[in-house]
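Batch manifest, entry 17 of 40.
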Amino acid sequence: MDDKTAPNAKPRAGEHRPEPWQVDNLRVEDSAKSIVALTQSEANAKRIVACVNACEGISDPEKWIEVARNLADDSLKVVANNDALVEALQKIADLAIAPMVDMADPAEDQARDWSNVAATAWNTARSALAKHGR
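Output type: structure tokens
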């Protein structure tokens, strides 16, 4: 046992009590069962403990959380972009299959203009890509 993990050890300047922390009713305790904080509710104690234990080993938790939030925001944008591109691809697929379905129907005497279908598909794809800076 070193001086940082010994019971009743005082943290050095800029350090906190060793993890894992735990809740004992309204008390927040460190790994040596020393009281770190007294709270007004057990819910507050549980939140403090959850945050401290989740940040164990992270030298700069505030910076890490900022990076994690930015990654989460970026992930949501990727999902939204993916959904928009899938929707555009579905439109293109629908445009491409429509002439084949119509031509397969002997009762249908209209001929589709393939160049219009291709142009519409192209415009749909370009529009979707432009929305995403491509």
